[in-house]
What we know:
By secondary structure, the chain is an alpha+beta fold. Among the domains are: 5-64, Arc Repressor Mutant, subunit A, CATH 1.10.10; 78-172, Glutaredoxin. The chain has helices spanning 5-15, 27-38, 43-53, 57-64, 86-90, 93-104, 146-157, 173-180, 198-209, 253-261, 286-297, 313-328, and strands at residues 78-83, 110-111, 117-122, 134-136, 139-141. The longest helix is centred in the last third of the chain and has 16 residues, at 313-328. The structure holds FE2/S2 (inorganic) cluster. FE2/S2 (inorganic) cluster is lined by residues 83, 85-88, 124-128, 131, 133. FE2/S2 (inorganic) cluster (FES) binds next to helix 5.
Amino acid sequence: MGFSQETHDRAREIIARYPADRARSALLPLLHLVQAEDGYVSPAGVEFCAEQLGINKAQVSAVATFYTMYKRRPSGDWLVSVCTNTMCDVLGGQRVYDALSEHLGVGHEETTADGTITLEHAECLAACDYGPVMTVNYDFFDKVDPDIALGVVSELRAGGRPAPTRGARLCTLKEMSLQLAGFSDTRDGAVADGPAGDPTLRGLRLAQQHGVSVTGFDPNTPITGDAPVASRPAPAATGSTAPDVKAPQAKSPEIRAAETRAPDAQTPAPDAPGTTVPTDRAEPDSDAEAAESAGAAANPPASDAKPAGDSPQPQRAALRDARSEEGTQ
Ligand code: FES
């Protein structure tokens, strides 16, 4: 099925935002645009983007498969992303994910049978100070636990739209994709922002409370040019009293690190391109290599559908058993 006239018009509008000889830079918003109509980056969507930009489908697919926000399979109206990265994980993120997975009967990037919810792991949602966090179509639910998360998905499946902890009200994945393509949603509450919350400001408040500050730091110092901070010239005529900090030597970090390890050694000149480096590597240890191969074979990579982080089925079963035991007590 072809794309609507509206999508064609929007595609032209997106491409017109870029210089004529840089049209392919429009690919990222175009991918969001086709996702806004199809619910994912379909094969037809890949072809559409390629035609609009005069590039081939492999070039489009290479980009679409790189970013996790482009979905390669039909997705539900509600994309529920649970952070299971380090900070959220130690605060219970994996338990939240496991509870949702068990309740919904789906794993990573799978969609419920009723087509409403797609579940996914996320690698840091940039809200570590509110962990464990989950998002629904990229709007935040902070400090969740299994019960809160199950309440959110139950309300979504019943047709409700639970209010995120902060930010805008929820919109569907297609509506969100259109916003990400650069078309503002003018409906009430579709876009919202707010001040930084207490957890975000905690470090600042502690520093103020204890009088901690960086010596010589002047918050009015302008950020100028593209030189490294340490070698920037002193800002002119800003009234700043901050000292002029300069790099001690214009040497690469690798050379400085080598000098720190062996201060008396002469720094060798870098190899010229094409230099053949002699090797004094010992003959391969066949026992060690065999052991390494055996180890690699015993540790197969995670499949596409079940990446590392998805609890194996026995663990999920144990979780279910533990819950039913709790329920009988
Ligand atoms: S680790 Fe979860 S938001 Fe950063």
